[in-house]
C-alpha cells in the first residue's frame, strides 16, 4: 500500500509530519535527497527540513544523486531505506537527474512495496504523471538534458505548491489559469500537506 506525505514547505508543516509519523509508526530512518536545490540560489529550506527530521530523532542519510556517480550505490540505498524524502528546488533539474540514473521505475516500485515517500515542492510535483505544467514556476532551461517530462505517476493529481505564497503568488496563479481545465491540480499553501494512504487522499492544514 502506498503512503505519501506531500507538501510545499516541509518545515512549515512539521507538526503535521510528526502526527503522520506517529500514526504510521514510521521507522525513524530517512534517505534525504537534496538534489533539486543544486541549481537554486536559495536553499535554506533544505537545512530546515533536515532540522525537522533531527528534532524527531530520525537517522538522516543525505544522498545527492547528481554527485554520486555510482548508480548501483544510489539504487542500493533506495532499496534499503524505509522512508525517502525528496526536497524542493528546480523540478526539471530533479527529474533530469532521476532519469539519468533510471531511478523512476525503482522509486515507483518501492512506493508500491511500502516505502514511505516524503516530497516537498519539487519532490511533491514529481509524483504526478508529468511535470511540464510547472514550467511557469520553474525554469526548465536549467535541465538542458531533459527531453520529456513524464514523472513518477503514483498519484492521480498534480501538486501546485506555494499557492498564492511569496514569491510564487503570480506564477502559482498563472499555472492554475493555464492548467485548471486540463489537470487535476491540487493547490497547496505552505501550511498544508496532502496525505496519501492507499487510495485515500486527505489535505490537512497546520492549526
TrEMBL record:
Keyword check for Cell inner membrane: no
Keyword Hydrolase part of the UniProt annotation: yes
Keywords in alphabetical order: Hydrolase, Protease, Serine protease
Cross-referenced InterPro entries: Class_I_gatase-like, Peptidase_S51
Domain of life: Bacteria
Gene Ontology molecular functions: serine-type peptidase activity
A biological-process GO annotation: proteolysis
Protein family (similarity comment): Belongs to the peptidase S51 family.
Protein name: Peptidase E
Amino acid at each position: 500500500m502506498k503512503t505519501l506525505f506531500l507538501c510545499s514547505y516541509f518545515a512549515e508543516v512539521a507538526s503535521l509530519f510528526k502526527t503522520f509519523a506517529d500514526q504510521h509508526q514510521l521507522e525513524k530512518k530517512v534517505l534525504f535527497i537534496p538534489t533539486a536545490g543544486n541549481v537554486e540560489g536559495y536553499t535554506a529550506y533544505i537545512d530546515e527540513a533536515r532540522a525537522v527530521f533531527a528534532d524527531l530523532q530520525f537517522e538522516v542519510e543525505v544522498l545527492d544523486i547528481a554527485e554520486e556517480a555510482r548508480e548501483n550505490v544510489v539504487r542500493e540505498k533506495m532499496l534499503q531505506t524505509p522512508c525517502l524524502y525528496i526536497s524542493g528546488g528546480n523540478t526539471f533539474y530533479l527529474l533530469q537527474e532521476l532519469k539519468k540514473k533510471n531511478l523512476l521505475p525503482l522509486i515507483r516500485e518501492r512506493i508500491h512495496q511500502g516505502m514511505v515517500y516524503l516530497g516537498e515542492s519539487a519532490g511533491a510535483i514529481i509524483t504526478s504523471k508529468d511535470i511540464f505544467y510547472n514550467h511557469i514556476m520553474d525554469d526548465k532551461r536549467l535541465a538542458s538534458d531533459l527531453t520529456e517530462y513524464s514523472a513518477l505517476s503514483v498519484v492521480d493529481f498534480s501538486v501546485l505548491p506555494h499557492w498564492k505564497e511569496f514569491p510564487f503568488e503570480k506564477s502559482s496563479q498563472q499555472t492554475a489559469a493555464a492548467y485548471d481545465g486540463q489537470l487535476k491540480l491540487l493547490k497547496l499553501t505552505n501550511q498544508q500537506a496532502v496525505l496519501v494512504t492507499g487510495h485515500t487522499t486527505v489535505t490537512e492544514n497546520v492549526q
